């Protein structure tokens, strides 16, 4: 097991001190090989010093350190970075070094974690994104230190509210314990990720019953957005427009022909306005990844050194083809350019140390940013919904306080999220028709919408966005794309449209205006 060079050098100096060799007399960095294990480098060290002696108790101590961090506590519970206490170790015993590395006892098989994940998700609607964030933290290089010493809740701030539940459901385990640090890892990282791969409605849940399907049809026949929006992140008060944008994004269709069907959403506003909570709710429904620029690893698009795919191409392989990106304003310019290309074309090109390549990334984009003034205009222009989430006013704050207090420390499951996830999965199976007769009426409606504009320079991209929203709305309604659906899409995307213009558009559809 190879270890980080800096950590190897530190441990080797401790080893030299404990066997009576001055560590300053040896240039450790000169011969330490990062591809070798601790014991292999230890053998090189003793060749360099001309001493083939070690301390038996010390050898056992470092065996556990390098291979079984969970057993360190049983060996005395000492912090490897703390100075050794005088009575810590028995007197040195001179013995010959073994020719081979000591056998390592196999770790006990990890328990089946999928049922535990399902039970945890019943009480924690936002746990999906947290588990994915932990798994990403454990997997991203350099992970040798984390694999050995584990992580602490303070190293992953968003984890802290869920940490007690993770322990209760057996989703994390202790791998290292000392007087100053307790290190944790996921009990079964691969099993946890596998349990999260399926959409929320298929994680052990039964297929929808006839009664549930009838409820879906009832919602579809009325006003799906009005019925479903209050069920989106119900722990968050208000945010009606933001929640409707989320529903339309998740209901949007994949690209077809030369048309982009995927909807992109960007929430922006001051910190503390629940933008990130909306992202985690979406991740809970779609089992998608929540990416933050603070995370290590290949990043959002690709690792330029190795060509390893990042979060965007990974999302393309997911069941919902959706990516959530927090703190968009902190994403680097080159990464934003690649993301922009992916949002428009469904692919992006890159150049790494291994050459030039192209990766598929036809995903639905849900982002959050505190500031958008620094984002490129063309990036903002690609957003179908650019939703400002302001700080609440006095009256809204009163409602929010009451909402938080009523839900404080209550774990009533997540029937709302399950219903919305099931409805979206049902709606996504529907592929609306766009009859030729309706296409002609839609053309006339959009042309009138252009005529009603006060500007002579018309941006065409928002008009194309109206068609995407209309298509997603038709899926939610289990109907076809009609001119009436397009008018509803205009109203959703332009909530400030004045009554005069709206009346003119309605009159056109009614045939009372040429």
Quick synopsis:
It contains 22 helices and nine strands.
How would you write the strand order of the largest sheet? 4-5-8-3-9
Find the count of extended strands (DSSP E, 2+ residues): 9
Name the CATH class of the largest domain. Alpha Beta
As residue ranges, the low-confidence spans are 53-110, 201-205
Query: What share of residues are in beta strands?
Result: 5-15%
Structural class: alpha/beta
User: Rg from C-alpha positions?
Assistant: 29 Å
**Shape designation:** elongated
Q: Helix proportion of residues, in percent?
A: 40-55%
Number of helical elements: 22
- Determine the N-to-C terminus distance: 77 Å
The CATH topology label of the largest domain is Rossmann fold
Average of pLDDT: 78
Classified in CATH, the superfamily of the largest domain is P-loop containing nucleotide triphosphate hydrolases
Count of discrete domains = 4
């Amino acid at each position: 097991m190879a270890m980080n060079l800096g950590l190897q050098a530190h441990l080797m100096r401790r080893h030299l001190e404990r066997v009576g060799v001055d560590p300053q007399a040896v240039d450790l960095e000169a011969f330490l090989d990062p591809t070798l294990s601790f014991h292999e480098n230890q053998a090189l060290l003793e060749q360099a010093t001309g001493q083939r002696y070690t301390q038996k108790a010390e050898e056992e101590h470092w065996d556990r350190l390098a291979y079984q961090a969970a057993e360190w506590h049983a060996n005395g519970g000492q912090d490897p970075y703390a100075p050794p206490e005088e009575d810590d170790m028995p007197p040195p015993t001179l013995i010959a070094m073994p020719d081979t590395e000591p056998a390592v006892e196999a770790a006990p098989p990890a328990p089946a974690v999928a049922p535990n994940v399902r039970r945890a998700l019943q009480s924690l609607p936002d746990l999906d994104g947290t588990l994915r964030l932990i798994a990403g933290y454990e997997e991203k290089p350099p992970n040798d230190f984390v694999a050995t010493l584990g992580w602490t809740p303070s190293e992953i701030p968003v984890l802290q509210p869920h940490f007690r539940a993770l322990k209760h459901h057996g989703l994390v385990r202790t791998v290292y314990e000392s007087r100053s640090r307790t290190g944790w890892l996921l009990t079964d990282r691969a099993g946890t990720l596998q349990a999260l791969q399926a959409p929320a409605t298929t994680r052990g849940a039964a297929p929808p019953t006839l009664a549930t399907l009838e409820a879906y049809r009832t919602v579809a026949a009325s006003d799906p957005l009005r019925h479903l929006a209050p069920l989106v992140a119900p722990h968050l008060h208000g945010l009606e427009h933001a929640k409707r944008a989320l529903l339309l994004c998740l209901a949007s269709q994949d690209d077809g022909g030369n048309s982009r069907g995927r909807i992109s959403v960007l929430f922006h506003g001051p910190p503390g306005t629940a933008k990130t909570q909306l992202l985690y709710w979406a991740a809970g429904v779609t089992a998608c990844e929540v990416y933050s620029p603070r995370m290590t690893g290949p990043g959002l698009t690709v690792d330029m050194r190795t060509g390893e795919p990042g979060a965007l191409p990974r999302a393309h392989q997911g069941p919902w083809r959706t990516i959530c990106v927090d703190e968009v304003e902190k994403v680097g310019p080159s990464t934003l350019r690649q993301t922009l290309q992916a949002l428009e074309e469904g692919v992006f090109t890159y150049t790494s140390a291994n050459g030039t390549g192209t990766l598929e990334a036809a995903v639905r984009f849900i982002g959050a940013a505190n500031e958008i003034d620094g984002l490129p205009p063309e990036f903002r222009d690609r957003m179908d919904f650019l939703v400002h989430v302001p700080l609440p006013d006095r009256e809204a704050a009163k409602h929010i306080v009451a909402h938080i207090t009523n839900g404080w420390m209550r774990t009533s499951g997540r029937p709302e999220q399950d219903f919305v996830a099931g409805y979206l999965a049902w709606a996504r199976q529907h592929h609306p028709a766009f009859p030729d007769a309706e296409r002609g009426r839609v053309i006339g409606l959009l042309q009138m919408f252009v005529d009603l504009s006060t500007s002579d320079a018309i941006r065409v991209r928002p008009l194309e966005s109206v068609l995407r929203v209309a298509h997603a709305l038709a899926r939610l309604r289990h109907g076809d794309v009609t001119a009436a659906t397009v008018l509803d899409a205009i109203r959703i995307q332009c909530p400030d449209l004045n009554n005069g213009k709206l009346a003119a558009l309605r009159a056109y559809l009614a045939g009372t205006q040429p």
